[in-house]
Amino acid sequence: MPVKPLHDRVLLQRIELDEQKSLGGIIIPDTAKEKPIEGKVVAVGDGTRDDEGKFVPLRVQPGDRVLFGKYSGNDVKIGGQEYLIVRESEILAIVSNN
After folding, report:
1. Is the pLDDT of residue 21 over 60?
2. With 81 labelled, which of 11, 29, 35, 74 sits at a CA distance of 20 to 30 A?
């Protein structure tokens, strides 16, 4: 990946779900669909410093699946692909594969 986020920022790729219909069977057009709130970590920054000046590395790592807030981060386009840059504090949870 040619992009490395700074400090406590994380580069995410949204994970699209294959839900094309509502529960009632109504087909939802692309313009009305909500953006997914689940993503895959592509790259992470080095970390940040706490109030005492100690270095704090990030908890998420590339390859982790995470949940993030609906209106979190900034959308960016890199090499024709759409990504999202968020602060680690905007990540709500890491999704385990269990």
Report:
1. no
2. 29
